[in-house]
Amino acid sequence: MIKIAVLVSGSGSNLQALIDANLSGQIVGVISNKPDAYALNRAKQAGISTAVIEHKQYPNREAFDDVMHQQLLEWDVDLVVLAGFMRILSAKFVKAWEGKMVNIHPSLLPYYKGMHTHQRVLATGDVFHGCTVHYVTAELDAGQALAQGVLKVTHKDTVDRLAQRVHVLEHLIYPQVVEWICTGTLQHTEQGVLHRGRLLEEPIQFFKF
Ligand code: GRF
Hints:
By secondary structure, the protein is α/β, with parallel strands linked by helices. The protein has helices at about 15-20, 40-45, 60-75, 90-95, 115-125, 160-185; strands at about 5-10, 25-30, 50, 80, 100-105, 130-135, 145-150, 185-190, 190-195, 200, 205.
């Protein structure tokens, strides 16, 4: 059974969706860089081990990442799931977990990397928006996209409303992608990412209109 660690910094609604999904893999631990992250309560409620590793207590990014790395090794983790983890990871850490670490980002990557995605979508007047699950590479929000949840922006949307609507999609697609990884339906291989045994060239798209 695949052992999963979830890295969080905040509310952890994606963590909750993963817990509720009853994955084939086991969430063996949750790491937060913030001691007051609500996600920690969710983990405890579900009986999952937690570790608070505060970035502020380390002299630099590498030192912080090394402690996280050691914790992941201790838990014997196969897959690292970033769920609202608000730290940029060092190249060394990313390399160590290459092909074994995924993230969810609130935009249709490659569009709108970085912060304030909903605001930027509204300012541009885009018709479509959504979220992307992708492998994590050293370049921010640039690893191979595995799946996207797509919604249609309406005239009623504000930043908050869009954030809420995108969250609903996140809670649908993230557990699905993680489950596919757990069952081997999605595989990271030397030849590329395979989905149901075939090379994945474009992210799998889920629509919710
Ligand atoms: C999500 O919007 C996700 O896309 C981004 O951080 C947010 C985390 O939300 N990476 P939550 O903590 O899972 O509720």
